[in-house]
Amino acid sequence: MSVSPPLAAKNQALCMVSDVYHGLEGVQRGEVAYLRVLTMIKQEQDMTPHRHCCHP
């Protein structure tokens, strides 16, 4: 994970979400219109995709 100085200067961030529907039972694809970030992950945590991938 890296910090983008231009975005950080505007108090913004760029986030990637691979599948917002994973684990949402009863929610059909196409129903999600907005996402809300509830928790910020500390930068020093290892967020490499192979360690946190949720796909079966």
List the helices and strands and how they pair.
Blueprint lengths: L4 H5 L39 H4 L4
Characterization of this structure:
The protein is elongated, with a radius of gyration of 14 Å. The protein contains two helices and no strands. The two termini are 23 Å apart. It has helices at 5-9, 49-52. With 56 residues, the chain is mostly helical. The mean pLDDT is 77. The protein has one domain.
Task: Provide the succession of SSEs.
Answer: HH
Briefly note the structural class of the backbone.
Answer: mainly alpha
Please state the CA-atom Rg, rounded to the nearest Å.
14 Å
- What's the total number of strands? 0
**What fraction of residues sit in β-strands?**
under 5%
Secondary structure: helix percent:
10-25%
Low-confidence stretches are: none
Overall pLDDT score: 77
Could you describe the largest sheet, including whether it forms a barrel? none
What does the overall shape look like? elongated
Number of helices: 2
Structure at a glance:
This protein has 56 residues and is mainly alpha-helical. It is 16% helix and 0% strand.
Characteristics of this structure?
16% helix, 2 helices, 56 residues, mainly alpha, elongated
